[in-house]
Amino acid sequence: MERAKDQRNSFWNAVSILGVVGWSVALPTLIGIALGIWIDRRWPSRFSWALMLLIAGLLFGCFTAWQRIRKDG
Asked: What are the two backbone dihedrals, phi and then psi, of residue 56, each rounded to the nearest 5 degrees?
């Protein structure tokens, strides 16, 4: 009984970690895109702020997710 309970808890724990990791990558990426589009519309330039902030948000999200996995693992 105890072993089955531990396996169930570990499964849901893994699912919750995947959810947190997914949101910690997706949210900064989406915020970067939205902010970049706003800057591009407000102050047009040669460079795409949406693309630059998408990459910055993705890198920040991946770093945050990596820190989270390293802490929980």
From this structure: -65, -45
Phi and psi, residue 51, nearest 5°: -70, -45
- For 20-70, the pLDDT digits (tens) are 888 999 999 999 999 999 999 999 999 999 999 999 999 999 999 999 888
Structural domain boundaries of the chain?
17-72
Angstrom distance (rounded) from CA 12 to CA 27: 22
pTM over the 0.85 mark: no
The CA distance from 73 to 62, in Å, is: 16
pLDDT tens column, 2-22: 555 555 667 777 788 888 888
If you ran DSSP here, which 8-state letter would residue 46 be given?
S
